[in-house]
Amino acid sequence: MESVVSIQKVNKTFGEGTNNQVHALDDIDLVIQPNEFVSLIGPSGCGKSTLLRVIGDLITPTSGKITINGKSAHQARLDRDYGMVFQAATLYDWRTVAKNVQLPLELMKYSNDKKEARTREMLALVELEDFDRHYPWQLSGGMQQRVAIARALAFEPSILLMDEPFGALDEMTRERMNLELLDIWGKTQTTVIFVTHSITEAVFLSTRVMVMSARPGRLIQDITIDLPQPRNADSRENVRFFELETEVREALRQSESQKHE
Amino acid sequence: MSSLQLPAWLKSSLYFLLIVIIIILAWEGYKLLGDVGGKFLRGTAQVRVGEERVPGSLCQSIGLCEVELPVRSDDRAMPHVKDMVVTIFEPPRRGSEVILLNILFRASLFTLQEAIAGFVIGGVLGFSLGVVFAHSGLLERGLLPYVVASQTVPLLAIAPMVVIWLGGNWFSVAIIAAYLTFFPVTINTLRGLRSPEMTSLELMHSYAATPWEILWKLRVPAALPYIFTALKVSATASVVGAIIGELPSGIADGLGRVILNFNQYYATGPERLWASILFASLTGMAFFLIITLLEYIFIHHQPADI
Q1: Helix/strand/coil (H/E/C) assignment for every residue in B128-190
Q2: Substitution target from B200, B201, B207 for chain A, most A beta carbons within 10 A
Q3: Per the domain annotation, does B262 fall within a domain?
Protein backbone atom coordinates (compact mmCIF):
# COMPACT_ATOMS: atom_id res chain seq x y z
CA MET A 1 0.00 0.00 0.00
CA GLU A 2 1.30 3.44 -0.88
CA SER A 3 2.03 5.63 2.13
CA VAL A 4 0.09 8.88 2.59
CA VAL A 5 2.97 10.73 4.22
CA SER A 6 6.64 9.95 3.76
CA ILE A 7 9.21 12.22 5.39
CA GLN A 8 12.95 11.69 5.00
CA LYS A 9 15.69 13.56 6.87
CA VAL A 10 13.64 16.74 7.26
CA ASN A 11 15.35 19.65 9.04
CA LYS A 12 13.99 23.08 9.79
CA THR A 13 16.05 25.97 11.09
CA PHE A 14 14.38 29.33 11.68
CA GLY A 15 16.40 32.50 11.21
CA GLU A 16 19.36 30.70 9.70
CA GLY A 17 22.59 32.68 9.87
CA THR A 18 21.20 35.15 12.40
CA ASN A 19 21.93 35.41 16.11
CA ASN A 20 18.59 33.94 17.14
CA GLN A 21 18.84 30.88 14.95
CA VAL A 22 16.49 28.10 16.14
CA HIS A 23 16.95 24.50 15.12
CA ALA A 24 13.31 23.37 15.29
CA LEU A 25 13.34 20.00 13.50
CA ASP A 26 16.28 17.62 13.40
CA ASP A 27 16.48 14.78 10.86
CA ILE A 28 12.83 13.77 11.04
CA ASP A 29 11.91 10.45 9.40
CA LEU A 30 8.24 9.48 9.40
CA VAL A 31 6.01 7.28 7.28
CA ILE A 32 2.24 7.29 7.72
CA GLN A 33 -0.08 4.77 6.06
CA PRO A 34 -3.65 5.45 4.88
CA ASN A 35 -6.29 5.64 7.62
CA GLU A 36 -3.75 5.88 10.42
CA PHE A 37 -4.37 8.21 13.35
CA VAL A 38 -0.95 9.52 14.36
CA SER A 39 -0.44 11.82 17.34
CA LEU A 40 2.62 14.02 17.80
CA ILE A 41 3.33 14.65 21.46
CA GLY A 42 6.20 16.40 23.21
CA PRO A 43 7.17 19.24 25.52
CA SER A 44 6.13 22.74 24.45
CA GLY A 45 8.38 24.27 21.87
CA CYS A 46 9.55 20.85 20.63
CA GLY A 47 8.50 21.63 17.06
CA LYS A 48 5.41 19.42 16.79
CA SER A 49 3.33 22.26 15.34
CA THR A 50 6.21 23.10 13.02
CA LEU A 51 6.32 19.50 11.82
CA LEU A 52 2.57 19.60 11.20
CA ARG A 53 2.95 22.81 9.15
CA VAL A 54 5.90 21.37 7.22
CA ILE A 55 3.72 18.40 6.26
CA GLY A 56 0.93 20.82 5.26
CA ASP A 57 3.30 22.98 3.15
CA LEU A 58 2.63 26.03 5.31
CA ILE A 59 6.33 26.06 6.28
CA THR A 60 9.12 25.08 3.90
CA PRO A 61 11.70 22.73 5.42
CA THR A 62 15.37 23.75 5.33
CA SER A 63 16.35 20.33 3.98
CA GLY A 64 14.92 16.86 3.47
CA LYS A 65 12.22 15.27 1.37
CA ILE A 66 8.48 15.13 1.91
CA THR A 67 6.17 13.01 -0.22
CA ILE A 68 2.40 13.26 0.20
CA ASN A 69 0.24 10.78 -1.72
CA GLY A 70 3.17 10.26 -4.10
CA LYS A 71 3.76 13.95 -4.83
CA SER A 72 5.42 16.98 -3.25
CA ALA A 73 3.79 18.66 -0.26
CA HIS A 74 3.36 21.79 -2.36
CA GLN A 75 1.50 19.92 -5.09
CA ALA A 76 -0.59 18.19 -2.40
CA ARG A 77 -1.63 21.59 -1.04
CA LEU A 78 -2.55 22.82 -4.52
CA ASP A 79 -4.56 19.59 -4.97
CA ARG A 80 -6.38 20.34 -1.69
CA ASP A 81 -5.24 17.16 0.04
CA TYR A 82 -5.19 18.82 3.47
CA GLY A 83 -7.93 19.72 5.91
CA MET A 84 -6.66 21.89 8.77
CA VAL A 85 -8.03 22.35 12.27
CA PHE A 86 -6.31 24.73 14.68
CA GLN A 87 -6.46 25.22 18.43
CA ALA A 88 -8.65 28.30 17.92
CA ALA A 89 -11.65 27.37 15.78
CA THR A 90 -10.60 30.13 13.32
CA LEU A 91 -14.14 30.60 12.06
CA TYR A 92 -14.89 33.81 10.20
CA ASP A 93 -17.14 35.98 12.37
CA TRP A 94 -18.98 37.55 9.44
CA ARG A 95 -20.11 34.17 8.08
CA THR A 96 -22.86 31.97 9.44
CA VAL A 97 -22.04 28.42 10.49
CA ALA A 98 -23.22 27.11 7.10
CA LYS A 99 -21.22 29.76 5.23
CA ASN A 100 -18.11 28.90 7.21
CA VAL A 101 -18.42 25.25 6.25
CA GLN A 102 -18.90 26.34 2.64
CA LEU A 103 -15.77 28.52 2.55
CA PRO A 104 -13.46 25.81 1.10
CA LEU A 105 -16.23 24.68 -1.27
CA GLU A 106 -16.59 28.23 -2.63
CA LEU A 107 -12.85 28.41 -3.25
CA MET A 108 -12.96 25.03 -4.97
CA LYS A 109 -15.83 26.18 -7.22
CA TYR A 110 -18.39 23.60 -6.15
CA SER A 111 -21.81 24.05 -7.76
CA ASN A 112 -24.47 25.59 -5.52
CA ASP A 113 -26.44 22.35 -5.20
CA LYS A 114 -23.37 20.36 -4.28
CA LYS A 115 -22.28 23.05 -1.85
CA GLU A 116 -25.59 23.02 -0.02
CA ALA A 117 -25.84 19.25 0.05
CA ARG A 118 -22.30 18.86 1.31
CA THR A 119 -22.86 21.49 4.01
CA ARG A 120 -25.98 19.73 5.27
CA GLU A 121 -24.15 16.42 5.29
CA MET A 122 -21.19 17.84 7.24
CA LEU A 123 -23.33 19.67 9.79
CA ALA A 124 -25.26 16.44 10.34
CA LEU A 125 -21.96 14.63 10.88
CA VAL A 126 -20.99 17.01 13.69
CA GLU A 127 -24.60 17.20 14.93
CA LEU A 128 -25.11 20.91 14.31
CA GLU A 129 -27.89 20.77 11.67
CA ASP A 130 -30.02 23.23 13.60
CA PHE A 131 -27.29 25.83 13.93
CA ASP A 132 -26.60 26.52 10.25
CA ARG A 133 -27.85 30.12 10.46
CA HIS A 134 -26.09 30.98 13.71
CA TYR A 135 -22.96 33.07 13.80
CA PRO A 136 -19.79 31.54 15.31
CA TRP A 137 -19.78 33.84 18.33
CA GLN A 138 -23.23 32.55 19.27
CA LEU A 139 -21.83 29.03 19.80
CA SER A 140 -19.90 27.46 22.67
CA GLY A 141 -16.19 26.64 22.25
CA GLY A 142 -16.90 22.94 21.67
CA MET A 143 -19.54 23.70 19.04
CA GLN A 144 -17.21 26.12 17.27
CA GLN A 145 -14.56 23.43 17.07
CA ARG A 146 -17.11 21.00 15.61
CA VAL A 147 -17.88 23.56 12.90
CA ALA A 148 -14.15 23.82 12.23
CA ILE A 149 -13.97 20.03 11.83
CA ALA A 150 -17.00 20.04 9.52
CA ARG A 151 -15.29 22.74 7.44
CA ALA A 152 -12.03 20.78 7.30
CA LEU A 153 -13.79 17.62 6.12
CA ALA A 154 -16.26 19.30 3.73
CA PHE A 155 -14.10 18.85 0.63
CA GLU A 156 -13.02 15.30 1.53
CA PRO A 157 -9.30 15.90 1.99
CA SER A 158 -7.22 12.75 2.30
CA ILE A 159 -5.28 14.09 5.32
CA LEU A 160 -6.66 15.86 8.36
CA LEU A 161 -4.02 17.99 10.12
CA MET A 162 -5.06 18.94 13.65
CA ASP A 163 -3.02 21.33 15.79
CA GLU A 164 -4.14 20.90 19.42
CA PRO A 165 -7.77 21.21 18.32
CA PHE A 166 -9.22 20.57 21.78
CA GLY A 167 -6.47 22.31 23.75
CA ALA A 168 -8.68 25.24 24.71
CA LEU A 169 -11.68 23.15 25.82
CA ASP A 170 -12.56 21.98 29.32
CA GLU A 171 -11.88 18.37 30.27
CA MET A 172 -15.47 17.15 29.88
CA THR A 173 -16.03 18.78 26.52
CA ARG A 174 -12.65 17.49 25.41
CA GLU A 175 -13.54 13.89 26.25
CA ARG A 176 -16.82 14.16 24.39
CA MET A 177 -15.08 15.74 21.40
CA ASN A 178 -12.53 12.90 21.43
CA LEU A 179 -15.32 10.35 21.08
CA GLU A 180 -16.97 12.37 18.31
CA LEU A 181 -13.69 12.69 16.46
CA LEU A 182 -13.13 8.92 16.59
CA ASP A 183 -16.66 8.44 15.29
CA ILE A 184 -16.04 10.87 12.41
CA TRP A 185 -12.66 9.27 11.67
CA GLY A 186 -14.36 5.86 11.51
CA LYS A 187 -16.96 7.16 9.07
CA THR A 188 -14.68 9.18 6.78
CA GLN A 189 -11.59 6.94 6.51
CA THR A 190 -9.28 9.95 6.60
CA THR A 191 -5.68 9.87 7.70
CA VAL A 192 -5.28 12.06 10.79
CA ILE A 193 -2.15 13.76 12.11
CA PHE A 194 -2.90 15.16 15.54
CA VAL A 195 -0.74 17.45 17.66
CA THR A 196 -1.49 17.37 21.38
CA HIS A 197 -0.15 18.09 24.86
CA SER A 198 -2.31 15.49 26.50
CA ILE A 199 -1.00 11.95 27.03
CA THR A 200 -4.51 10.61 27.70
CA GLU A 201 -5.88 12.16 24.54
CA ALA A 202 -3.00 10.89 22.43
CA VAL A 203 -3.34 7.31 23.68
CA PHE A 204 -7.12 7.28 23.48
CA LEU A 205 -7.34 8.55 19.90
CA SER A 206 -4.31 7.25 18.10
CA THR A 207 -3.16 4.16 16.30
CA ARG A 208 0.38 5.46 16.80
CA VAL A 209 1.93 8.04 19.12
CA MET A 210 5.14 9.75 18.06
CA VAL A 211 7.06 11.19 21.02
CA MET A 212 9.24 14.21 20.28
CA SER A 213 12.14 15.66 22.22
CA ALA A 214 12.60 19.34 22.95
CA ARG A 215 14.79 21.53 20.75
CA PRO A 216 16.02 20.46 18.37
CA GLY A 217 12.83 18.49 17.72
CA ARG A 218 13.52 14.81 17.11
CA LEU A 219 11.21 11.84 16.93
CA ILE A 220 12.51 9.72 19.80
CA GLN A 221 9.89 7.03 20.12
CA ASP A 222 7.22 5.45 17.96
CA ILE A 223 4.59 3.75 20.14
CA THR A 224 1.90 1.64 18.50
CA ILE A 225 -1.39 1.90 20.37
CA ASP A 226 -2.89 -1.58 20.17
CA LEU A 227 -6.12 -0.85 22.00
CA PRO A 228 -9.04 -2.57 20.26
CA GLN A 229 -11.09 -0.62 17.71
CA PRO A 230 -13.66 0.90 17.73
CA ARG A 231 -12.90 2.68 20.96
CA ASN A 232 -15.45 4.04 23.38
CA ALA A 233 -15.60 5.57 26.85
CA ASP A 234 -14.75 2.15 28.36
CA SER A 235 -11.44 2.03 26.49
CA ARG A 236 -10.17 4.61 28.97
CA GLU A 237 -10.61 2.09 31.79
CA ASN A 238 -8.80 -0.74 30.01
CA VAL A 239 -5.63 -1.95 31.79
CA ARG A 240 -3.76 -1.77 28.51
CA PHE A 241 -4.75 1.93 28.29
CA PHE A 242 -2.86 2.67 31.53
CA GLU A 243 0.15 0.65 30.41
CA LEU A 244 0.33 2.64 27.17
CA GLU A 245 -0.15 5.93 29.01
CA THR A 246 2.77 4.99 31.26
CA GLU A 247 4.88 4.09 28.25
CA VAL A 248 4.24 7.49 26.63
CA ARG A 249 4.88 9.26 29.94
CA GLU A 250 8.20 7.44 30.38
CA ALA A 251 9.24 8.38 26.84
CA LEU A 252 8.39 12.02 27.51
CA ARG A 253 10.38 11.98 30.75
CA GLN A 254 13.30 10.52 28.85
CA SER A 255 13.07 13.34 26.32
CA GLU A 256 13.14 15.85 29.16
CA SER A 257 16.25 14.32 30.71
CA GLN A 258 17.99 14.26 27.33
CA LYS A 259 17.40 17.95 27.09
CA HIS A 260 19.14 18.60 30.41
CA GLU A 261 22.24 16.58 29.64
CA MET B 1 -34.09 46.57 33.53
CA SER B 2 -36.12 49.74 33.23
CA SER B 3 -39.88 49.49 33.08
CA LEU B 4 -39.98 51.68 29.98
CA GLN B 5 -38.43 49.84 27.03
CA LEU B 6 -37.62 52.30 24.26
CA PRO B 7 -35.97 51.37 20.99
CA ALA B 8 -32.27 52.26 20.94
CA TRP B 9 -32.60 54.87 18.18
CA LEU B 10 -35.38 56.66 20.04
CA LYS B 11 -33.36 56.61 23.24
CA SER B 12 -30.31 58.15 21.58
CA SER B 13 -32.53 60.73 19.87
CA LEU B 14 -34.01 61.70 23.22
CA TYR B 15 -30.55 62.00 24.74
CA PHE B 16 -29.51 64.16 21.82
CA LEU B 17 -32.55 66.37 22.34
CA LEU B 18 -31.77 66.63 26.05
CA ILE B 19 -28.22 67.80 25.28
CA VAL B 20 -29.58 70.39 22.81
CA ILE B 21 -31.86 71.76 25.52
CA ILE B 22 -28.97 71.87 28.02
CA ILE B 23 -26.80 73.75 25.52
CA ILE B 24 -29.58 76.27 24.83
CA LEU B 25 -30.15 76.80 28.56
CA ALA B 26 -26.41 77.24 29.17
CA TRP B 27 -26.21 79.74 26.30
CA GLU B 28 -29.12 81.84 27.49
CA GLY B 29 -28.01 81.47 31.12
CA TYR B 30 -24.59 82.85 30.26
CA LYS B 31 -26.22 85.80 28.55
CA LEU B 32 -28.14 86.53 31.77
CA LEU B 33 -24.82 86.82 33.61
CA GLY B 34 -23.73 89.82 31.57
CA ASP B 35 -24.81 93.39 32.20
CA VAL B 36 -26.18 95.77 29.57
CA GLY B 37 -23.03 96.03 27.45
CA GLY B 38 -22.25 92.34 27.84
CA LYS B 39 -18.67 93.04 28.84
CA PHE B 40 -18.89 92.81 32.63
CA LEU B 41 -20.54 90.47 35.09
CA ARG B 42 -23.95 91.85 36.05
CA GLY B 43 -23.77 94.05 39.16
CA THR B 44 -20.04 94.65 39.06
CA ALA B 45 -19.95 97.50 36.52
CA GLN B 46 -21.21 101.07 36.68
CA VAL B 47 -24.84 101.58 35.85
CA ARG B 48 -26.60 104.75 34.77
CA VAL B 49 -29.24 106.05 37.12
CA GLY B 50 -30.90 109.08 35.56
CA GLU B 51 -28.04 111.50 34.80
CA GLU B 52 -25.61 109.79 37.15
CA ARG B 53 -23.33 106.79 36.87
CA VAL B 54 -23.20 104.67 40.00
CA PRO B 55 -21.20 101.53 40.76
CA GLY B 56 -23.10 98.22 40.51
CA SER B 57 -24.63 96.59 43.55
CA LEU B 58 -21.96 93.84 43.90
CA CYS B 59 -19.25 96.50 43.61
CA GLN B 60 -20.86 98.47 46.41
CA SER B 61 -21.64 95.59 48.75
CA ILE B 62 -18.69 93.16 48.49
CA GLY B 63 -16.23 95.11 46.39
CA LEU B 64 -16.51 92.92 43.30
CA CYS B 65 -15.93 95.57 40.63
CA GLU B 66 -15.74 95.33 36.84
CA VAL B 67 -15.36 91.56 36.57
CA GLU B 68 -14.91 90.89 32.82
CA LEU B 69 -16.66 87.96 31.19
CA PRO B 70 -14.39 85.68 29.10
CA VAL B 71 -16.72 86.15 26.12
CA ARG B 72 -18.95 89.19 25.67
CA SER B 73 -22.55 88.26 26.20
CA ASP B 74 -24.22 90.97 24.14
CA ASP B 75 -26.57 90.15 21.24
CA ARG B 76 -23.85 90.76 18.70
CA ALA B 77 -21.39 88.18 20.05
CA MET B 78 -24.08 85.79 21.25
CA PRO B 79 -27.46 86.32 19.61
CA HIS B 80 -30.50 84.87 21.36
CA VAL B 81 -31.38 81.32 20.31
CA LYS B 82 -34.90 82.54 19.60
CA ASP B 83 -33.54 85.12 17.11
CA MET B 84 -31.48 82.45 15.34
CA VAL B 85 -34.58 80.30 14.90
CA VAL B 86 -36.80 83.22 13.85
CA THR B 87 -34.30 84.47 11.28
CA ILE B 88 -34.38 81.05 9.58
CA PHE B 89 -38.01 81.71 8.64
CA GLU B 90 -37.49 85.29 7.44
CA PRO B 91 -36.14 86.51 4.09
CA PRO B 92 -32.51 87.62 4.69
CA ARG B 93 -32.65 90.38 2.06
CA ARG B 94 -35.07 93.22 1.84
CA GLY B 95 -37.37 93.03 -1.15
CA SER B 96 -37.05 89.28 -1.48
CA GLU B 97 -39.67 86.65 -0.68
CA VAL B 98 -37.21 83.74 -0.29
CA ILE B 99 -36.79 82.84 3.37
CA LEU B 100 -33.41 81.92 4.84
CA LEU B 101 -34.45 78.29 5.44
CA ASN B 102 -34.88 77.83 1.72
CA ILE B 103 -31.49 79.34 0.94
CA LEU B 104 -29.68 77.36 3.64
CA PHE B 105 -31.42 74.10 2.72
CA ARG B 106 -30.51 74.43 -0.95
CA ALA B 107 -26.93 75.44 -0.11
CA SER B 108 -26.59 72.50 2.31
CA LEU B 109 -27.85 70.05 -0.28
CA PHE B 110 -25.46 71.46 -2.89
CA THR B 111 -22.49 71.23 -0.52
CA LEU B 112 -23.53 67.73 0.56
CA GLN B 113 -23.43 66.60 -3.08
CA GLU B 114 -19.90 67.93 -3.47
CA ALA B 115 -18.94 66.32 -0.18
CA ILE B 116 -20.37 62.95 -1.23
CA ALA B 117 -18.50 63.09 -4.55
CA GLY B 118 -15.28 63.95 -2.70
CA PHE B 119 -15.99 61.28 -0.12
CA VAL B 120 -16.43 58.62 -2.82
CA ILE B 121 -13.26 59.69 -4.66
CA GLY B 122 -11.29 59.88 -1.39
CA GLY B 123 -12.76 56.62 -0.10
CA VAL B 124 -11.88 54.68 -3.25
CA LEU B 125 -8.38 56.21 -3.33
CA GLY B 126 -7.87 55.57 0.39
CA PHE B 127 -9.05 51.98 0.14
CA SER B 128 -6.89 51.29 -2.92
CA LEU B 129 -3.80 52.73 -1.24
CA GLY B 130 -4.54 50.61 1.84
CA VAL B 131 -4.79 47.46 -0.29
CA VAL B 132 -1.54 48.26 -2.12
CA PHE B 133 0.32 49.01 1.12
CA ALA B 134 -1.02 45.87 2.80
CA HIS B 135 0.46 43.75 0.03
CA SER B 136 3.76 45.52 -0.47
CA GLY B 137 5.95 46.50 2.44
CA LEU B 138 8.26 48.18 -0.05
CA LEU B 139 5.56 50.50 -1.41
CA GLU B 140 4.30 51.13 2.11
CA ARG B 141 7.73 52.24 3.30
CA GLY B 142 8.27 54.27 0.14
CA LEU B 143 4.90 56.00 -0.20
CA LEU B 144 3.34 56.16 3.26
CA PRO B 145 5.59 59.05 4.38
CA TYR B 146 4.23 61.12 1.46
CA VAL B 147 0.68 60.22 2.37
CA VAL B 148 1.35 61.42 5.91
CA ALA B 149 3.18 64.52 4.65
CA SER B 150 0.21 65.39 2.44
CA GLN B 151 -1.91 65.80 5.56
CA THR B 152 0.52 68.27 7.15
CA VAL B 153 -0.03 70.78 4.34
CA PRO B 154 -2.93 73.06 5.30
CA LEU B 155 -6.05 72.60 3.22
CA LEU B 156 -6.22 76.40 2.79
CA ALA B 157 -2.94 76.24 0.83
CA ILE B 158 -3.96 73.22 -1.25
CA ALA B 159 -7.42 74.48 -2.22
CA PRO B 160 -6.29 77.44 -4.42
CA MET B 161 -3.78 75.14 -6.20
CA VAL B 162 -6.49 72.67 -7.08
CA VAL B 163 -8.67 75.51 -8.38
CA ILE B 164 -5.81 76.82 -10.52
CA TRP B 165 -5.19 73.36 -11.97
CA LEU B 166 -8.74 72.13 -12.45
CA GLY B 167 -10.72 75.37 -12.67
CA GLY B 168 -13.26 76.89 -10.32
CA ASN B 169 -15.90 74.22 -10.64
CA TRP B 170 -17.83 71.61 -8.79
CA PHE B 171 -15.21 68.91 -9.50
CA SER B 172 -12.39 70.92 -7.90
CA VAL B 173 -14.39 71.15 -4.72
CA ALA B 174 -14.92 67.38 -4.73
CA ILE B 175 -11.16 66.87 -5.14
CA ILE B 176 -10.46 69.21 -2.22
CA ALA B 177 -12.97 67.27 -0.09
CA ALA B 178 -11.33 64.02 -1.21
CA TYR B 179 -8.00 65.34 0.01
CA LEU B 180 -9.34 65.40 3.57
CA THR B 181 -11.14 62.09 3.15
CA PHE B 182 -8.61 59.60 1.85
CA PHE B 183 -6.08 59.69 4.67
CA PRO B 184 -8.07 58.09 7.53
CA VAL B 185 -9.42 55.52 5.07
CA THR B 186 -5.89 54.55 3.96
CA ILE B 187 -4.60 54.18 7.50
CA ASN B 188 -7.58 52.21 8.78
CA THR B 189 -7.86 50.01 5.69
CA LEU B 190 -4.21 49.08 6.09
CA ARG B 191 -4.70 48.29 9.76
CA GLY B 192 -7.88 46.31 9.06
CA LEU B 193 -6.44 44.28 6.19
CA ARG B 194 -3.62 43.21 8.50
CA SER B 195 -5.95 42.34 11.36
CA PRO B 196 -6.63 38.63 10.54
CA GLU B 197 -4.72 36.25 12.75
CA MET B 198 -1.95 34.02 11.43
CA THR B 199 -4.15 30.91 11.59
CA SER B 200 -6.90 32.58 9.53
CA LEU B 201 -4.32 33.11 6.80
CA GLU B 202 -2.90 29.61 7.20
CA LEU B 203 -6.41 28.25 6.74
CA MET B 204 -6.67 30.10 3.41
CA HIS B 205 -3.23 28.83 2.36
CA SER B 206 -4.23 25.28 3.20
CA TYR B 207 -7.06 25.69 0.64
CA ALA B 208 -4.48 26.99 -1.87
CA ALA B 209 -6.46 30.26 -2.10
CA THR B 210 -5.08 32.96 -4.42
CA PRO B 211 -4.07 36.39 -3.03
CA TRP B 212 -7.20 37.82 -4.70
CA GLU B 213 -9.43 35.29 -2.91
CA ILE B 214 -7.66 35.94 0.40
CA LEU B 215 -8.25 39.68 -0.10
CA TRP B 216 -11.99 39.45 -0.75
CA LYS B 217 -12.95 36.49 1.42
CA LEU B 218 -10.75 37.21 4.43
CA ARG B 219 -8.91 40.53 4.54
CA VAL B 220 -11.64 42.90 3.36
CA PRO B 221 -14.46 41.41 5.49
CA ALA B 222 -12.11 41.50 8.50
CA ALA B 223 -11.22 45.12 7.69
CA LEU B 224 -14.81 46.39 7.33
CA PRO B 225 -15.24 47.52 10.96
CA TYR B 226 -11.96 49.47 10.69
CA ILE B 227 -12.92 50.94 7.31
CA PHE B 228 -16.32 52.11 8.55
CA THR B 229 -14.72 53.82 11.52
CA ALA B 230 -12.58 55.76 9.04
CA LEU B 231 -15.54 56.48 6.76
CA LYS B 232 -17.43 58.07 9.65
CA VAL B 233 -14.49 60.39 10.30
CA SER B 234 -14.23 61.09 6.58
CA ALA B 235 -17.93 61.81 6.13
CA THR B 236 -17.80 64.84 8.42
CA ALA B 237 -14.34 65.87 7.18
CA SER B 238 -15.55 65.86 3.57
CA VAL B 239 -18.26 68.42 4.40
CA VAL B 240 -15.64 70.70 5.97
CA GLY B 241 -13.42 70.13 2.91
CA ALA B 242 -16.26 71.02 0.54
CA ILE B 243 -17.12 74.23 2.40
CA ILE B 244 -13.48 75.36 2.39
CA GLY B 245 -13.08 74.29 -1.24
CA GLU B 246 -16.03 76.43 -2.34
CA LEU B 247 -14.30 79.67 -1.28
CA PRO B 248 -11.38 79.78 -3.77
CA SER B 249 -13.54 78.06 -6.42
CA GLY B 250 -15.95 81.01 -6.40
CA ILE B 251 -18.91 78.65 -6.25
CA ALA B 252 -21.97 80.63 -5.16
CA ASP B 253 -24.49 77.84 -4.59
CA GLY B 254 -23.01 76.16 -1.51
CA LEU B 255 -22.66 76.78 2.20
CA GLY B 256 -19.17 78.28 1.73
CA ARG B 257 -20.47 81.42 0.01
CA VAL B 258 -23.43 81.70 2.41
CA ILE B 259 -21.09 81.59 5.41
CA LEU B 260 -18.72 84.09 3.80
CA ASN B 261 -21.62 86.47 3.05
CA PHE B 262 -23.15 86.40 6.50
CA ASN B 263 -19.68 86.75 7.96
CA GLN B 264 -19.22 90.02 6.08
CA TYR B 265 -22.59 91.32 7.25
CA TYR B 266 -22.18 89.95 10.74
CA ALA B 267 -22.63 93.33 12.41
CA THR B 268 -26.12 93.79 10.99
CA GLY B 269 -27.36 90.23 11.45
CA PRO B 270 -25.19 87.96 13.59
CA GLU B 271 -27.98 85.40 14.01
CA ARG B 272 -27.81 84.60 10.27
CA LEU B 273 -24.22 83.41 10.51
CA TRP B 274 -25.15 81.30 13.50
CA ALA B 275 -28.04 79.82 11.56
CA SER B 276 -25.64 78.94 8.71
CA ILE B 277 -23.25 77.28 11.16
CA LEU B 278 -26.18 75.23 12.43
CA PHE B 279 -26.95 74.06 8.89
CA ALA B 280 -23.31 73.27 8.14
CA SER B 281 -23.13 71.01 11.17
CA LEU B 282 -26.52 69.45 10.38
CA THR B 283 -25.17 68.61 6.91
CA GLY B 284 -22.14 66.87 8.42
CA MET B 285 -24.34 65.01 10.87
CA ALA B 286 -26.72 63.88 8.12
CA PHE B 287 -23.80 62.43 6.18
CA PHE B 288 -22.45 60.77 9.33
CA LEU B 289 -25.84 59.16 9.93
CA ILE B 290 -25.99 57.85 6.35
CA ILE B 291 -22.63 56.11 6.86
CA THR B 292 -23.67 54.75 10.26
CA LEU B 293 -26.78 53.28 8.63
CA LEU B 294 -24.65 51.66 5.89
CA GLU B 295 -22.33 50.29 8.55
CA TYR B 296 -25.28 48.74 10.35
CA ILE B 297 -26.48 47.14 7.12
CA PHE B 298 -23.05 45.72 6.27
CA ILE B 299 -21.72 44.53 9.61
CA HIS B 300 -24.61 44.31 12.04
CA HIS B 301 -23.89 40.60 12.53
CA GLN B 302 -20.47 41.20 14.05
CA PRO B 303 -20.06 40.39 17.75
CA ALA B 304 -18.81 43.85 18.71
CA ASP B 305 -21.86 46.06 18.37
CA ILE B 306 -21.33 49.71 17.57
Answers
A1: HHHHHHHHCHHHHHHHHHHHHHHCCCCHHHHHHHHHHHHCCCHHHHHHHHHHHHHHHHHHHHH
A2: B207
A3: yes
